[in-house]
Specification:
The chain has 419 residues and is an alpha+beta fold. It is 36% helix and 33% strand. Helix 2 (109-169) packs antiparallel against helix 3. It is elongated, with a radius of gyration of 51 Å.
């Protein structure tokens, strides 16, 4: 009887163990990649719904688009200096007027009465001051006459004194008569000194009072002129020559003091008034230039004034035409313009798109080499115009960037482009 033989199990070859290890490692790595990939927030979107642009190196033209409105270079508003009812209208809206030409006659009974009362009161005060001036002149003449009389009396007495000196020595007149002449002469000399002193005081006082009176007369005459002017202002005249572009006035209607009556424009000169976003308020300055197209022609304009006041997120600038002024332009016509803020500078450029409103230029989605995925990347941008934004950091020339809107993918880390 044959005995059973123990069969030994053969060992697995080393190459098989190595193959198993490789397979297990690959499966683990694949599983890890699968799990890691699943953890990335990914937004899938058809490629045709996106705009992809290439980062390029070139000259950055510091331009911004602005919209300007044609306005007369000079306009003057007509306001009612004195309110009243409209009696007569001498001109129609839209007509051309000359400086000083009557436009409308207003009537105001109260103003007419006040002007008459003011004239009467002012005239009375002027007459009183003129009488004072005349009185001072009479006083001056009276003092001078007294001095003349005294000097004449002194001359006569001195002559008598010399004659009496000889007569008293010959005892032809008494000592008493001689002494009377001497006393009278001394008295007249004192009177003369007193009159001279009084004349000095009167002259000083008269000069001071006459200066005051002259000032008062000047003020009264100005008041009288103002009163007459206020009355005359009821007849509204054109302050400048130009076109009466606004004149809503009808006979019989009442106009309040300060109410707008119309507007006169100087139509042979125009300017452009533009509203610009407050973002550029520190970068816009006089002498900068702008270009625009009109009727197939290119024109230039220059900034002449920047208004610093910001209203509803914009500020205002005035521009004038350089060189040739377009034909047939009209007040209120709008122009699309490009304002140059600085000289061209060579730098990295990224085409402007909807992404700039969503990210503020702080980050973008950059396509990988396979262009199947785009990854979020932080960047830093500089100036921008209506076509490009200047890239300072984060991108390189030739890289491809999604520049369309990110409104549906702001919280994503990766974009997958599908067919």
């Amino acid at each position: 009887m044959a005995m059973d033989r123990k069969i030994e199990k053969s060992k697995r070859p080393l190459w098989q163990w190595g193959l198993i290890a490789v397979l297990v490692s690959g499966a683990g790595f694949y599983l890890y990649q699968l799990l890691a990939d699943a953890s990335i927030r990914t937004y899938r979107v058809p490629q045709e719904q996106l705009i992809v642009s290439t980062v390029q190196f070139g000259a950055f033209e510091d331009l911004i688009p602005i919209r300007g409105t044609i306005q007369p270079f000079e306009s003057v508003f007509l306001d009612a200096v004195i309110g009243g009812s409209v009696d007569e209208v001498f001109i129609e809206e839209g007509a051309f007027v000359e400086a000083g030409q009557p436009l409308v006659q207003l009537s105001n009974t109260a103003t007419r009465l006040q002007a008459a009362q003011a004239d009467a009161g002012t005239t009375e005060q002027l007459n009183f001051l003129n009488n004072l001036t005349t009185g001072f002149e009479y006083q001056k003449l009276n003092t001078e006459r007294q001095i003349i009389d005294t000097e004449y009396r002194i001359t006569t007495l001195e002559r008598q004194k010399r004659r009496f000196e000889r007569l008293v020595d010959d005892s032809l007149i008494s000592e008493e008569e001689y002494e009377a002449i001497i006393d009278e002469l001394a008295y007249q000399n004192k009177v003369h000194e007193n009159l001279k002193a009084r004349q000095i005081v009167e002259d000083r006082e008269r000069e001071s009072r006459l200066t005051q009176i002259a000032t008062q007369i000047e003020m009264l005459e100005e008041n009288l002129e103002i009163s007459q002017t206020s009355f005359e202002s009821l007849l509204v005249r054109a302050p400048i020559s130009g076109q009466l572009t606004s004149f809503p006035v009808e006979i019989g209607e009442s106009k309040q003091t300060g109410q707008r009556l119309g507007q006169i424009d100087v139509v042979d000169q125009y300017k452009i008034v533009a509203q610009i976003d407050e973002y550029y308020v520190s970068r816009v300055a006089p002498e900068q230039t702008a270009t625009f197209s009109l009727a197939g022609q290119e024109f230039d304009a220059r900034v002449i004034k920047v208004y610093p006041e910001i209203t509803e997120g914009t500020f205002e600038v005035d521009l004038i035409f350089l060189g040739y002024t377009p034909d047939n332009i009209r007040r209120g016509q709008t122009l699309q313009m490009e304002l140059t803020l600085g000289s061209p500078v060579e730098s990295l450029l990224l085409p402007l798109g909807g992404f700039i409103q969503d990210t503020g230029g702080n980050w973008v989605f950059v396509l990988g080499e396979d262009e199947q995925f785009a990854y979020r990347r932080d960047i830093r941008v500089g100036r921008r115009n209506n076509r490009y934004v200047e890239v300072r950091e984060g991108l390189q020339q030739g890289e491809r960037v999604i520049t369309s809107s990110y409104s549906q993918m702001e919280d994503m880390e990766r974009i997958q482009l599908t067919q």
